[in-house]
Specification:
The protein is α+β, with helices and mostly antiparallel strands and 386 residues long. It has 11 helices and 13 strands. It folds into 2 domains: 195 residues, Ribosomal Protein S5, domain 2 (2-Layer Sandwich), CATH 3.30.230.10; 173 residues, Alpha-Beta Plaits. The strands form 3 sheets. It has a 6-stranded mixed beta sheet with strand order 5-4-6-3-1-13, sandwiched between helices. A hairpin with a 6-residue loop joins strand 4 and strand 5. Helix 3 crosses helix 5. The relative contact order is 0.17.
């Protein structure tokens, strides 16, 4: 059991019993990719895999960061502020601590031992999971009045300003606010949200990790962010809009030639069509029409491939196989792309066959195997017992 292992490891490393255990899930975005920093609506859900934290207060005024999954550790004296150091994992909790200090909260020394079962760099929001987990743990331990939405916003601030990734709010919001068997329809511009039942009936929500590692800071994520801003700036000369996702597909069809650069035009086309697909997907879920939902997943992936150009041979190989597999009704990449994961809806009795057959096809083409596992919509960040 994860908490039993964490408890023993914490005792071995810090020579006392941890005071608290916390868990924060990862997430998948069911549809609505790259809309979170363009003011659109997204449809993520938290998943049962995530990050665990055993934590206790020390009297040495030290922040000690350790993790079962990485060899790097850090021991830092309590001070007024911190800055990012290198690319090590502990920058994520350190950034959250820095944000709490900047907001005037008094913290003491802490010993923190993290561990998780999310594949790192796979697009399942392992970084957001750590950020929200740390934020929730600090609020609980020190009695700081901050709700889950505020913790999500703080995590986004850390990602943007401390880590240096121009992400939107979706990842932190999903892992903070998730509910069991429900997806979250989130307007990333207004932060209005509602929960939608996400029962897949006799289909399995399947996650396929391409095992191609990608790091957002080093990828073309920030490049896409800039391209979207340029496209919006051009369209705002003609249209009274604040974000690209304020534009409906019919209006864009009339106005797209204002964007002379074909690359920028494609970027805008993806965002505007994807925002419409989210609206259509909501109706499909409300009607319990998983076949339509699956078709929208395929259309989303095609747009991400052709117009947004963030898929790559690994993710395309997975989705192409899904299209040929008789037990699959929909598949798409999830997350930022450039590697990472895809999701698919697989008929329950065909799940094992899907695992076996895709593994053979993928390994023959890529030279290494994917990781394939099932998932369900799960609850967000929380304290757990030992």
């Amino acid at each position: 059991m994860k908490t039993a292992q964490l408890k023993q490891e914490f005792r071995n490393r810090f020579q006392y019993e941890p005071e608290h255990f916390f868990f924060c899930p990862g997430r998948v975005n069911l549809i609505g990719e790259h809309l979170d920093y363009n003011g659109g609506s997204v449809l993520p859900c938290a998943i049962s895999r995530g990050t665990y934290l055993a934590i206790g207060r020390n009297k040495e005024k030290l922040f000690r960061f350790q993790c079962l999954d990485f060899p790097e550790t850090a021991t830092l004296h309590l001070q007024e502020s911190y800055s990012k150091t290198g690319t090590q994992w502990f920058n994520y909790p350190l950034g959250v601590i820095n944000a709490y200090l900047a907001n005037g909260h008094n913290l003491s020394g802490l010993d923190m031992l993290f561990s998780g079962n999310l594949p790192v760099g796979a697009g399942l929001s392992s970084s957001a999971s750590i950020e929200v987990l740390t934020g929730f743990a600090l609020s609980s331990i020190y009695g700081i009045e901050i709700d889950r939405k505020e913790i999500a916003l703080l995590g986004k601030q850390v990602e943007n300003k401390f880590i240096g990734v121009n992400c939107g709010i979706m990842d932190q919001f999903a892992v903070a606010m998730g509910k069991e068997h429900e997806a979250i329809l989130l307007n990333c511009d207004t932060l209005d949200y509602e929960y939608l039942p996400f029962y897949t009936d006799d289909y399995v929500l399947t996650i396929i990790n391409s095992n191609k590692h990608r790091t957002l800071v080093d990828s073309k994520y920030n490049e896409r962010f800039t391209e979207c801003g340029e496209a919006l700036g051009i369209l705002k000369r003609k249209l009274d809009v604040n974000t690209l996702c304020d534009i409906d597909p019919a209006t864009f069809e009339i106005s797209e030639n204002e964007i002379k650069d074909p690359v920028l035009r494609k970027r805008a086309r993806h965002l505007i069509s994807e925002n419409q697909r989210v609206k259509d997907a909501v109706i499909a879920l409300q009607m319990k029409d998983m076949f339509t939902f699956g078709k929208l997943m395929y259309a989303s992936h095609q747009s991400l491939d052709e117009d947004y150009e963030v898929t790559g041979v690994e993710l395309n190989t997975i989705v192409d196989f899904c299209k040929s597999f008789s037990g699959c009704i929909g598949a798409r990449m999830t997350g930022a792309g450039f590697g990472g994961c895809a999701i698919a809806l697989i008929k329950q009795p065909r799940f094992t066959a899907f695992q076996n057959e895709l593994t053979v096809v993928y390994e023959n083409k890529m030279g290494y195997a994917p990781e394939i596992f099932s998932a369900t919509a799960a609850a967000g960040v929380r304290e757990i017992s030992s």
